[in-house]
């Protein structure tokens, strides 16, 4: 194993942005630990025999004990990075709009507590946290196109309120983090240019990027390339907005 190899924990990597970030991190040769309620979802994509640098932990991101299992590598040292891309999907077939309207805020509180337990148990360092969020919830003015405001402020009001509380919990913690806000997510890899805006949670915007969409695959690749494989310090303790 190279001395530059990182150990990265993933919460919510069985689909979407998290899966894309996991794929690129594994391909770069880093050690990965993925928390998954249904491990078969990941083993179907990354067979154990051909993906020795992936450890899958069965559990729930709202459970401190489950999350804690992902915060130490096999040698007992704290992981270097934690990537959280958890979120609620639609659940119209179950008679409600969203599957879990509080999953992000609870997941954030759980991760913060698990990191605190890691420190109390003798952890010499805290992992760098990357949390995936959404545009449309900035405190410093509009960050979505005017045409998107009805969708964001009405149809997606409930999950966005959850994301906002999630962000506040990570920002209030004393762990170094980056929050990534993406514009409306689509599917499919592309070679489109990704524009990035930076916001300081206390002092406001440093640069702005307003756009309509970005794909899950491209967003995950951006997270891997700019925050995991090579950590760009411009985004430490900041909010990065990404869009085409």
What is the share of helical residues? Answer: 25-40%
The helix-and-strand class reads alpha/beta
Strand sequence of the main sheet, in spatial order? 3-2-1-4-5-6-11-8-9
Number of helices: 7
Radius of gyration, Cα only, in angstroms?
A: 17 Å
Distance between the termini: 36 Å
**Largest β sheet strand count, sense and barrel closure:** 9 strands, mixed
Strand content: 15-25%
Could you give the count of β-strands?
Answer: 11
Shape: globular
Low-confidence stretches: none
Q: What is the averaged pLDDT score?
A: 94
What's the order of the H and E elements? EHEHEHEHEHHEEEEEHE
Explain this structure to me?
With 244 residues, this protein is α/β, with parallel strands linked by helices. The strands form two sheets. The chain has a nine-stranded mixed beta sheet, sandwiched between helices. Strands 7-10 form a two-stranded parallel sheet. The protein contains seven helices and eleven strands. The model has no long low-confidence stretch (mean pLDDT 94). The longest helix has 18 residues, at 103-120. It is globular and about 50 Å long.
């Amino acid at each position: 194993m190279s001395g530059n190899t990182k150990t990265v924990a993933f919460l919510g990597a069985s689909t979407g942005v998290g899966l894309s970030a996991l794929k690129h991190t594994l391909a770069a040769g880093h050690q990965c630990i993925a928390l998954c309620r249904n491990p078969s979802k990941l083993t179907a994509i990354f067979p154990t025999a051909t993906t020795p640098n992936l450890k899958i932990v069965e559990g729930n991101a709202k459970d401190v004990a489950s999350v804690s299992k992902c915060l130490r590598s096999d040698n007992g040292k704290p992981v270097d990075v934690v990537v959280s891309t958890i979120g609620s999907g639609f659940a119209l077939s179950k008679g409600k709009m969203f599957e879990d309207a509080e999953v992000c805020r609870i997941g954030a509180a759980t991760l913060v507590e698990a990191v605190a337990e890691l420190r109390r148990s003798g952890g010499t360092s805290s992992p760098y946290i990357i949390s995936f969020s959404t545009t449309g919830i900035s405190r410093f003015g509009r960050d979505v196109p005017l045409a998107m405001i009805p969708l964001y402020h009405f149809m997606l009001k409930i999950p966005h309120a959850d994301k906002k509380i999630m962000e506040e919990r990570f920002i209030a913690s004393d762990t170094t983090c980056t929050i990534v806000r993406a514009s409306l997510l689509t599917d499919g890899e592309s070679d489109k240019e990704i524009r990035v805006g930076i916001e300081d949670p206390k002092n406001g915007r440093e640069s702005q990027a307003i756009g309509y969409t970005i794909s899950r695959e491209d967003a995950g690749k951006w997270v891997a390339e700019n925050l995991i494989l090579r950590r760009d310090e411009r985004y430490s303790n900041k909010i990065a907005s990404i869009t085409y």
